Amino acid sequence: MSEPLTEPLGESPRESPRESPGGPRSEWPGKRGRHQRHPALRTPICELFGVAYPIVQTGMGWVSTPELTAATSNAGALGILAAGTLTLGETDAAIASTRELTGQPFGVNLRGDAPDLAERASLLVKHGVRVASFALAPNERVIRSLHDDGLVVVPTVGARRHAEKVASWGVDAIIAQGAEGGGHTGVVPTSILLPQVVDAVDLPVIAAGGFCDGRGLVAALAFGAAGVAMGTRFLLTSDSPVPESVKAEYLRRTVTDTVVTTVLDGVPQRVLRTELVDQLLRGGSFGRLRRSAGHAIAFRRMSGASWRDIVAEGLAMRRSHEIGWTQLLMAANTPMMLRASMVDGRTDLGTLASGQVAGVIDDLPSCAELVERVVAQAGEILDRLTLATDGTS
Ligand SMILES: Cc1cc2nc3c(=O)[nH]c(=O)nc-3n(C[C@H](O)[C@H](O)[C@H](O)COP(=O)(O)O)c2cc1C
Predict the structure, then answer these.
(1) 249 within a domain of the structure (yes/no)
(2) CA of 321 to the centre of ligand 1 (A)
(3) CA atoms within 13 A on the CB side of 216
(4) Mutate which of 60, 113, 246, 260 to test ligand 1's pocket (most atoms within 8 Å of Cβ)?
(5) Is residue 390 in some structural domain?
(6) Are 132 and 56 within one domain?
(7) pLDDT, position 285
(8) How far is the CA of 393 from the centre of ligand 1 (A)?
(9) DSSP helix/strand/coil, 53
(10) pLDDT in tens, 79-131
(11) In terms of domains, do 226 and 302 share one?
(12) For ligand 1, is residue 204 a contact (CB within 6 Å)?
């Protein structure tokens, strides 16, 4: 098993207070309010998802709950409910709760390799959900059946060849996540991946990995994307259910305080570097195996999944990621370790999936404030660029 793919180079402690990205915070939300969106911010995903702004809050296990999802959708962006870590019954209840909290469109994040994917998809149809998002794209047959059910299918990819593959399977849009993104992630930085994917597919591409403000949104549009998707930035909002002590831990970190490692479940994952992560990186494979077995047992108890389901899921993961038998046992690690931090606040026992962007975030706005701020800042930049062009022509 390979050890961390990236090692932090070390950085001087975070200077505080830092200047807000894009200028003094008092300038936000700026002259353009919610109702005066710059016309360039009306992109194809606004139509596709039925939202006002080309901004997506991505699915994050234990984090994008009904409350966070609905708060995002009510702000005019697309909220995505995380269901990859929920049982079928919990998914049903969580979608119903989200529906109660918002009349706006939202999405649900599923695992494309879930053994009960068909039943999960039928829940989306039952509740009138518009968008099915996937970390691992489902196969062509499943995509066709989701389309037959009227769902918009949006997988996340981290490499151009994956984008080409899922585009050929008929997905409706693609989230292209660069290496700096949180959770499971690829190796190509957003600034390189994005133009590659935009050139490779004839679909709306949504940029992810490292976005937090209006400057990022305009940059993504300049690369040819149809909007941005943000995980870590939405985790760090007042609407996020993550314990305050855990949010404070993220806010303290610099851009070099994350690490990408395969020790958790065999697939490269970006997390905050903590004492626990260091221990895991140092620890031998026997210790990791013992921990994995414990998590698999606990995950079975918590999720109500049968051993058959867990093994089926592990086998699917093994097939899709070409991981070994030891790593198969580790498949339950990510949900269990994420839960310990995100739900129980036990950062000593759990992991904190995080994008590098955590290092430039220093506040906890509400989703409404965040979306308004991003849209206003993007509008001001677009105005300025247009004026500059007018002035020289
Ligand atoms: C705490 C956390 C949990 C995540 N859980 C999931 C998940 O369950 N499913 C998924 O598709 N992606 C998951 N991701 C990845 C995000 O959906 C998103 O693609 C990523 O955070 C984007 O990069 P950014 O953090 O730089 O914005 C997670 C990310 C974080 C930070």
Answers:
(1) no
(2) 18
(3) 23
(4) 60
(5) no
(6) yes
(7) 64
(8) 43
(9) coil
(10) 999 999 899 999 999 999 999 999 999 999 999 888 899 999 999 999 999 99
(11) no
(12) no
